[in-house]
């Protein structure tokens, strides 16, 4: 009987110890799980913090790059502004120099305009006193030249160029040996077709179309004078030479040699 009681006591103690050990193990497992959860949460939060740190680092790096770009842009702007400032200083100096040059040009224009007017008047007087060949055309050219000289839109250089062209045209007339057919009024004021021959400014002739009558312009008397038979033959020869129908040859036509009046000087 006592043995049974002891066995029961041992079994009861063993069962109690087993129950205690199981509870202890269960409590330990729960603690371990709680610790693991804490560690997992800590790792998760650490990962989030690391992501935030990485993101902030990337933002900081991007901000630094942008800062460097701004610095580079500022340096470029500074260099550009310095260059523009130097250009402005140079332009101001050039403007001042140009203004001085314009002032000189204005003074030159003020002095040159009267000279152009004098040159024009001298040319006009020359044409008026010259042999009246192509008279209407030359007067029209002078009238057009006068309008150009009065044109406020034309520069002084253009006016001077037109004036020189007119002088060159008149000079060229003095070197020409030309023949042409034209019309002249006879003593009865009847138009008559004739052949003209001009030798520069020293000889002006015409011959009727039948080559039976020749006439020369007397510059001093301002009239047409008949030619003698010998000069008439020379005029026919001269017309053929001007028409290039014969080789050039020496002509002894009566020519007018203008002489300077007493006290008159040659203007170069």
From TrEMBL:
Signal peptide: 1-27
Keyword list, A-Z: Coiled coil, Signal
Lineage top rank: taxon: Bacteria
Ranges in a coiled coil: 81-108
Database matches in InterPro entries: UCP028069 (IPR016866)
Pfam families on file: DUF3450
Designated name of the protein: DUF3450 domain-containing protein
Biological source species: Allopseudospirillum japonicum
């Amino acid at each position: 009987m006592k043995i049974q009681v002891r066995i029961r006591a041992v079994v009861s103690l063993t069962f109690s110890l087993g129950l205690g050990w199981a509870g202890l193990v269960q409590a330990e497992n729960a603690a371990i799980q709680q610790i693991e959860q804490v560690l997992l949460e800590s790792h998760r939060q650490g990962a989030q913090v690391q992501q935030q740190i990485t993101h902030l680092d990337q933002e900081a790096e991007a901000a630094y790059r942008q800062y460097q770009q701004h610095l580079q842009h500022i340096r470029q702007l500074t260099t550009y502004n310095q260059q523009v400032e130097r250009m402005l200083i140079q332009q101001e100096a050039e403007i001042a120099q140009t203004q001085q040059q314009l002032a000189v040009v204005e003074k030159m224009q003020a002095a040159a305009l009267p000279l152009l007017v004098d040159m024009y008047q001298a040319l006009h007087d020359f044409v008026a006193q010259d042999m009246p060949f192509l008279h209407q055309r030359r007067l029209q050219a002078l009238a057009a030249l006068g309008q150009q000289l009065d044109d406020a839109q034309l520069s002084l250089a253009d006016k001077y160029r037109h004036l020189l062209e007119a002088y060159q045209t008149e000079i060229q007339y003095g070197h020409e040996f030309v023949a042409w057919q034209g019309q002249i009024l006879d003593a009865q004021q009847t138009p008559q077709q004739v052949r003209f021959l001009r030798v520069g400014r020293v000889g002006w002739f015409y011959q009727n179309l039948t080559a039976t009558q020749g006439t020369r312009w007397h510059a001093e008397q301002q009239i047409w004078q008949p030619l003698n038979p010998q000069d008439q033959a020379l005029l026919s020869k001269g017309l053929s030479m001007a028409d290039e129908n014969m080789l050039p040859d020496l002509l002894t036509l009566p020519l007018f040699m203008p002489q300077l009046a007493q006290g008159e000087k040659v203007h170069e």
